[in-house]
Records
---
Amino acid sequence: MVEKEVRVWTRLGLHARPAILFVQKANEFACHIRIAKADKEANAKSISQLLSLKIRQNDQIQLRAYGEEEAEAVEALMQLLVQEPCSDAGDS
Amino acid sequence: MQGTPRRSDGEMKLCGLKGCGGLAEGRAKIWQRPLTESGSKHGRRGAPREDVGRLEEALDRASEELGKIVQRLQEEGRTEDSLIIQFQQMLLVDPEIVRAVKEGILEDELAAEDAFVRVMRQQISNLTGEGPNSDSEDYFAGRVSDYQDLMRRVLRVFRGQPTSLPRLREPCVLVTDELTPTEAIYILDTGMVRGLVLGRGGGTSHSVLIATSRSIPTLVGLGDDIKIIHNGDYLLLDGDACEICLNPTKEEMAIFEGRGKDRRSRYRILESLKDLPPVTADGARIQLKVNIASPEELDESLILGIDGIGIWRTEFLFMEREWEPNEEEQAGIYRSVSEKLPDKWVDIRTLDIGSDKHLPYHPPVREPNPSLGVRGIRFGLAHRNLLKTQLKAILRANLGGNLRVILPMVTMVEEVRLVREMIGHCMGELEKEGHSFNPQLPLGIMVEVPSTAYALDLFLPVSDFFSLGTNDLIQYFLGADRQSESLQDLLSPFHPSIVRFLRDIADASLKAGKPMSICGEMASQTLAVPLLIGLGFEQLSVPPPMFTEIKGLIRRLDRSRCHQVAEEVCALSEREEAKALLLEFLNNS
């Protein structure tokens, strides 16, 4: 299992296009992939579950992948969530 | 929200909420979606496995239908519409949804369609259930129509029924309770719908967005009043006045046509002045530009022979939608305007959010004094994603080389330097991504914070041009809230301190040789224009409806006489004296 925590820069929950791209990417991998925010977890391949997490910019989320190509999957999805490196001014 | 109809000879008026502005008229066509039974007729028959098979078939078929719609929309460049439908497509292959439906079939012995409906309803109630922040409530509530649209489609496919859409053989004003996104797309693309009346829906529902992008005047929220309209009633729909007139009398037709004429005669007056430049009587050429909030305003202005766009208030691109426009979409919009004014500057002001303007999908931070808070460039630098996306879009759109960027609410030179750095990074990213862009992008600043206006020389090295935002400048300089109704009188541009301040600003910018345009309300106030020209300003930017009037005014003025009266005004100590002097001056021009 590979797990990574990341601060979300795209408005995944509110923004239709990134959510669609994220789920499409997740579905390219064979492994199971979960995305979690606080105490709620969702299947990253399910757009309805993803939206139900209501993820916003600056939310801290965890990505977990289990199985074939788990590391690549987490990496690829992280890229979609992190559009630019953290910067101080961006934290406000 | 619902109008009170006046009944007399079948003629009456109804009121609604604005969906999309404009005037439309035509015969009413009432459409009611046939009631679909919500589930299977007989419950499940046969083995569960069969129903799973039926389910998969139905989902495939529905997916095919949606795929065709998406393809057509993408070919037509309607990306936003296609996103709406793509979302529905993804629901059809959503593993959790499919799993839950199959569970319903295999474990709860439901028929395929009943299992499907149950899961869809669950999803819908999840969306409308708990109450998060109000902004996201709107977003999720908006998704409900997508789920319902999909649910109806799949049920229809289960039954092998064709789509039940209205047959429109002649132009009409369509009247119906609500439209799902796919219905709206299909119906409005027939080209037969002149106007749209909806019983339900808020101003930003998907069907309204779809109507607006096709410029179809739309009123929503009429509720039960739509039952008052009958097939064949002649309707006059005014999307701006938000009213519908049924079976109008001659008088009402005349009024309606008058409104249309007013909107058209404006074009005619503009036409006669169209080829005349804004030159003063003594030959001084004043640059006269317009301020816009959306590209739609520009079509009118094109006729007017403007000298460019003085300010494009881009926050309006971001508001009144459910999510921010992405880089691609923004680039397309900026490019379209750039192409309309190929040899004129188009000054794009970056997102000026905060104070009185908020984005529906961005939770507003509570500030005690929003106009002194995190707004303008402060907001931009605190949300660099947004700013970067906007900058990258502008870079990509600037292949014509006539776009410029203006930064709002600049207080420090450091802010401008930071943005220049960001632009550098943006260019680097665009190169890596293989997008072409124009590396020349002039960067200017709004002069609206007094500290900036006071020490303009500090900004000369970092700013290519200036735009004076008199509305905010006056507010900050006089210490009075623009949004306070009781203080409106105080916020006079003819206050002696303001007049002197403007004089100093004009002097500084003339000395520096860097152009300064005036883009606040003051530029379109007839009493203030001679003063501004007299103080030495040579660039004004006004709202499109004021363009011709101000052009006409400039042509009447003698600039050297304006110099004189401006000097006299500077020596006065009271606003009323200043106004009286300027009024007299105007009457003698």
Note: Chain A touches chain B at residues 9-11, 13-17, 20, 23-24, 27, 43, 45-49, 51-52, 54, 56-57, 83-84, 87, 89-90, 92 (CB under 8 Å).
---
Amino acid sequence: MLDGRCSIPDTDNPRATGSSPWLLLNPGSFFSLLVPAAELFLGDCALAGESRAEFIQRVRDALTEAGEGYHPFSHAPRDVDPEVRRFVGPEAGLVDRFTEGATSAGMRVHRASNVAQATTQVVQLLQEAEIKELLVGDSGLVGQSDMASALRTEGILIERWSQLESPSKKAFDFSAALTGVDYALAETGSLVIWPSVAQGRLVSLAPALHIAVVSKDQILPDLIDLAQRLGAGGMPPQLNIITGPSKTADIELNLVKGVHGPGAVEIILVDAAG
Amino acid sequence: MSVEPYDFHSAAEIATSNSELLRTVGNATLRQYRGREEKLAELPDADSLRWLASKIKDQTLASLDKYLEQAVDAIEASGGHVHFAKDGDQAVEIIREIAVSRGLKRCVKSKSMAAEEIDLTPPMERAGVEMMETDLGEFILQLDQDKPSHIVAPVCHKSAADIARTFERELNIPYTEDPATLTKAARTYLRPKFRDAELGITGGNFIVAETGTTVLVTNEGNGRMCTSTPRVLVSLVGIEKLVPTLDDMMVMLKLLARSATGQPLTVYTTMITGPRRKYETDGPEEFHLVLLDNGRSKILASKYRETLRCIRCGACLNACPVYRKVGGHTYGEVYSGPIGALLTPLFNGMARYKALPQASSLCGSCFEACPVKIQIPEMLIEMRRDQVEQSVAPLSERIVMHLYGAMLRRPWLYRLSARMGYWLSKPFAHNGRLRWAPPPIGNWTKMRDLPAPAAKPFHLRWKALKDDR
């Protein structure tokens, strides 16, 4: 008898959709059971599709077939300068570039000279939005300076991601979240965030208001710099470059914010980590 | 066996007589086209950047086998699984098998052209999987049992009124054309679907070979949801989406959103490398990449390899005067517009889709718009040449062209025809133009005027000029 993993439902045969014993007596479905049965005995189960070798060999054969004779219809000129891919150099006014980009992407940037000021601004933003409860991802500057504790003393109801029960469900119940960032990008005014023990993927996604605390020295000039950092450090399981609140223009090109992700992203840019 | 050719002309006639369609598609394409122009003009040297991108793609395609090996190794090293689908049927099989063998019934799906190509949803639904489209445009199409008409703006053929009616009918909300209200209704409906999903299915904009990273660009947040809440994630990606390094991928990113909608980047650029790690409490426990061939290796071997540079930005659709007037459904298959005019005959057969390479005035706007410099107009001409050589063109056309060629090769016959042409066409000419003529010339004059042949043909006037010297 087959175990559940190998059963491929015979969807064209209306009788073969369950585990009825008639399944085996029906000649049509008998043959559809032969293949998975063979796989059971031959080794690894659930192998629909081709083998890696076959698949890549076909690509190799295609390239051989085309051979040296292949020429594209449009040729790049010989002397394309690879430096054109960099838009922002390290000498540029990174804070101004970042603020410009973030603002035109629909995010607000608030300046704070230190973490204490930043904490006050978080309280103000929550008051403005009339939200009392805050989901906190202890990442970046937020984690480093334990902003969650300071906010608690200011009377905000804090829940840390790392202490939530069933975090991937509970995250949906919050209206606001506070996170740090891993990097920021001057080129596009973007935030770069990836998960950690203290901050799951959903923290900066599920709640409608996302407050992100960025330290000035986290700002990289260009996407090219981000590629270099990631290349050196290895890729996290998921990384997001966030450039604005969630939006759509699917309904006759009318811009609407807050589709599935946060409808508002507030950035607090801190000068010094002190 | 003779194939019934797809009747593009009839479809186009229906489309162009639909004034609502002209309005919605016209607006969407023009807005996106202008957005692209503005954003690219901001760059000091957009043209060089596009050539750079085209080089990256060409180099990747030229060693695609090597980059595939690298990508597969990297994905497996990060804890992901890779599956290999020779064609659409195999891809469906693989994904269905993953869902059924793990008892996954609730699926949230992010927008994917590849998934459209293989028509994934019906077989999955028959296998008992609820396939929830989560991109707002695709969600609307699903409620309406309709198909996308644009690579990037799938529902641009619908008006706010259309969508209002759909939501009223399917979501039981009071009729409203207000986009914010409609969007909120979709958000409210889909939120629990995200939270409780077991399977996430996405496409992929790029795969970075060196790190085994799959990249998704979205604006709404559904791509992030689909890759964060379900316990199993499946990404279906065509093999031509590979780029060698993270740096190369950044070059493509700098062009993609600018070309598509005129944004420097989309709201979310999501990069996935394997399943969740041990320290995580959300994210998929399993990551499956399904690599799709489905005719791409055949194109790789052919003179049309360049079409595989395509990063599916939709800029050529927005630039094309034909697409703007007829919309995506008129092209009859998943890929429409100028790139579709090449891909559809290549993927789905030249005999059936011979009308598509003909449906172009060769204005070249598509080539001007393409971020990876795909020479679409030249390839359209090449396809027309192929059609003649493969005798795919209709018999009457071949006869006329043969006779025309025979006349042009014989100077005495040419001169005779020039003189006769004047007398034969005189009854039909008005003000020097032929607006109607009997077939086979009638096939031309149905769509365009012809200048009437002159009373004194050029060769006689030239002779007279020379004689005067």
Note: The longest strand of chain B covers residues 232-238.
---
Amino acid sequence: MKKLLHKQTGLIFFPAFDWAISPTHPEREERLLYTRDQIFEEGIMDLPQIAEYTPSLAEIHDIARVHFCVPRVEDQITEAHLIAAGAAILLADKIVQGEIKNGFALVRPPGHHAMRVVHGNRGFCNINNEAIMVEYLRSRHALKRIAIIDTDVHHGDGTQDIFWHDPDVLFISFHQDGRTLYPGTGFTYELGGPRAYARTINIPLPPGTTDESLLYMVDNLILPILEDFKPEFIVNSAGQDNHYTDPLGSMRITAHGYARLTEKLRPDLAVLEGGYAIETALPYVNMAIILALAGLDYTGVREPDYWPGRFKETPGQKEQVRSIVEELLKRWEMREKVSPDPKNIVGNYYQRRKHIFYDTDYIEENQIEKLRLCDNCPGFLVIDSEANHGYGTAGSVLCISVPLAACSKCRTEAEDIYERSKKATEYRYIYLQDKSADIFYGYDSESRKEWRTEG
Amino acid sequence: MYVGVDVGGTYTDAVLLEKNKVRAIAKIPTREDLLSSILEAIDSILKDVDTKKIKRVVFSTTIITNLIAEHKYDDVDMLIIPGPGLNHDYYKLRPYIHILSGAVDYRGREIIRLNEQEIEAVLSEIAARGSKKIGVVGKFSPRNTSHEKRVAALINNKYPDWQVELGSRIGGQLNFPRRVETTYLTCATRRPYHLFLESVRQALAKREINADVFILKADGGTTPLVGSEELPVETIFSGPAASTLGVQALTPPGETSVVVDIGGTTTDLALILSGRPLLSSKGARVKEQLTQVRALAVKSVSVGGDSVLEPDGNKIIIRPERMGPAYCLGGPVPTPTDALRVLDLTSLGNKDKAVEAMTIIGNALGLGVKDAAREAVSQVVAVIAAEIEKMFLEWEQEPAYRVWEVLHKHKVRPRIVAGVGGGALGFITQIAEKLGCSPLIPKYAAVANAIGAAVAKPTMQVSLRADTEQGYYIIQEEGFQEKIRGKKFNEQNALELAKKSLIRRAAKYGLEVAPDEIEVTRMEVFNMIRDWHTGGRLFDVTVQTPRGIICRIGYEGDY
């Protein structure tokens, strides 16, 4: 019997050894194999500070609460996706209920490139595990203010898209500068929608950034912002491709750096994202993160080819990071004093046009996203999305999203738009995601069939 | 004819089986001298029996458990090679742990070299203290035995009379701290265990019993006497394994049952799922230490027939101690057995005394004698039933690492609660009722453990790990590392190699194994992709001789 003097760190290890995007893809069965070997050989699961759980499946309803999957949720996911999302939800539940002090969902497949509308796989992601877990928490546990810190080397554009207009979810992503790496976004001027200004913070870092500048940035930018925002729950989208051996990134972070990062952020729940140096990084970084979460000594964790002082930054790199930190701090401090750009306001709506590319599935999507500006609530979203699958356009879809805190006027207006659109022939599929009622509708205009999921 | 002997804490039981019928039974109080208890039991059942007719004898003994519990062994010096990772203080769980430089990674590649001067210095230190027992364990040694073997060679060179055990031979599964502990216990108990087995061998020879002799292991399989000396700790929790196999032999096949063995102070619970005893997924816990010993999933609850009953307010507390036998059998304090006696759920002991005992309890609680007895019984039943529920829940919650495994988790609930062991069988009916199961107290319940020992099958397993990128394979139980010959090495090759090794290993101990009856318990194949093409493959195969029992005990009709 493990002695429960203090609460434990919950762990779900789901390497999905029988699932892959394709046999030779970085997201393949082998990805977490050596991590498993390392964790098992170290006896991590036996440690009294660790509680291992088995994953359960998320429900279709949980996915529909966040995403508009075209045509339906079932078409865009496999069981592996439901298990990964389910693992995040399970641990989040246990943390909020006080059974464990924090947790790490070491799961595949990843999710942070999956946006609100999902026509296919992009950046190895189909559905966004963290977003699904966060919306579950807000719907089931009445949590309000949540912070998501995306530490993957790639900009978490999917998570950013989902919470762009949400003032209660603070999304902070640091990543290798988008001018040098997929997905090519995540610049400092991307700060969120008109009702959630500066609730999105992007920190592009120069290639070659080491632990030093990383931790400087955490100490001087992320921690002060978290102090101000006072989240009830902190999520870490924990990508491990900032590691100096990662084949897709050019950063110089070490396992120690990850441990220090985790120690400083003190996330309630970490969820694995990317990281494809499966032999040289993942076993060590994951060990370091687990030990840091559990409050155990990680100083003995060391990559075989690393020695202290191996990587040094140039003065130019250090300066670049410092000026980004300065700029963003200013933006954060001025956040209440900024008004939305009138160019984007059309009638009662704030409008954005987006062009989204799905690299894995070769889909090009065009979106017109409109936010209903309301003085009494965050307002609902109406998204016109058209996807070109390469073999021709699949037609347009209309996605209406009503937030948790919507006022009754907005709810009614959104419902009207939904009903009206069903009668027209403009859109192949029409969706109404009513988060305030926790009921999600979909309508196929060709077969004239409607479906819905409820809690 | 088969003989089964189970040495328990209180009694040593023996049975003589002919075909599938019980011919003779013996129950002797276990004395401090285990050997004499065993011999008395054997002599009792073999009275008037032609010893030439005995084909095999199986022992289940507590010798190792006792040795460890009473710390009747010399300390072992452990030379461990942990390398980077967890803080080394974490491994200092025994008095003489020496940390050596060196490291091997998860693929068995050397990361840090051994420092031979450092090793020589440590050896001198050990020699100066006069210790001669050494365990050598390296992290990831099952993937590369060379470091451990080099240290062993250095020891053999200078101190050829020292006893050296290698972690890679003893614990092939990935878990370094457990491997260290298992190696320690193996090294510590090997010599005393050998002496014990020698005396058993001699005693049997004197009685002209020339049958094959086996020892029961914690996982419910047997191993020939000689073979058991290799890994003495495998026999550590054979008692509960014996009871479980006994129930398997005394119940219809394919059933899901809970085996409840209520002893004096503890109740052992085991599960038989669809006719197969459930193995613990991790490894036995010995006192407070975790090991890699393969054992059945047995849970010990601190409640037994002789536990002390204490009134507390308007409740009864069951204390996990024993101050002597039940009050109705001459003991000092009221016990659950007294409660059973009052309610006529057992015929053990003096009823008047039992009533006296329950009166003491009743008065303190303001209850009548029968009510006090019922209260005591229902509490014992509640505790045991709750632990059984927990066991099933824990089994359902076992972590799964494949999509297929997560999807196919199913709820399993027992149909039968089978009671075995000594005198507290009166609880079984109510435990079964509480769980919605059928109670079963099989015929010969009192010696189910000896029957289990008698019908246990010899088991042996071999684990093979192959890395085609590095071009070698390891047979873990042999500590044998060899290059892979030829370019092609696929799943079929790995499996055949493993099976051949198993047959060879079994033959060494006089066991015949047919290739088609070999069970494959693990088959993992991973493609190693480097730069978008397959750089090699990793294979992890475990094969074993079939587990099971040699026969069911037949008795016409009544179950």
Note: The first helix of chain A runs from residue 33 to 41.
